[in-house]
Amino acid sequence: MRLTSLPPVSLLALMGCTQSQINRSAVDVLSSVIRSGGTGNTTTATRPTSAPPAGKVIGTAEQYIGTPYKWGGSTPAEGFDCSGYVRYVYGKQGVRLPRTSREQAGAGTAVSARVSSLRAGDLMLFAEPHEAISHVAIYAGDQRIIHSSSSGGGVRYDVLDTKRGDWFVSHMVAARRLAVDGRSLVQALDLLAKPGLPFDHPDHAPPP
After folding, report:
1. Helices (H), 36-179
2. Active-site residue numbers?
3. What is the CATH number of the domain that holds 63?
């Protein structure tokens, strides 16, 4: 049997690695690909890919500025709600995300929920006091977010160091990074999906 025909974790075991080393190596292997799938076998659906550069994500997101807000909307033709927009933008880059902001809050890896910790392309998740996550935006850098906002009428930029932006800063409860050093950290859809979740509620930020 040729060693090169074995999966990476098996090779590590044969070389006498400890269980913790094997676990860390398995995470590295899995974090280097997007595992797409739905309800099927996620192992066979795994395909190698590199995560999209932030500039491409933001460039795609900007193409839909002015698209009206539509609760439950997920295409430019019908309009977008917040998570439908984020899902569509990343889908254009070959990254498959689940449908709602609550599900998207499990994608990638956690980032400190402070604006100073964010990189362009990170997801920002928001919640009303004592409520579940109900809004998501893409951080665009330079204190800006791009999102489909009900209070803003649709897809738009908002600047965080403004009165309206303060609402989003004060309601940010989580942030997620979908890539590290070009490696995708997006899990399989069937690991993120939570069937039966309602669409995201409209945000209650002050109007522009």
Report:
1. 42-45, 54-62, 82-92, 101-104, 163-171
2. 82, 135, 147
3. 3.90.1720.10
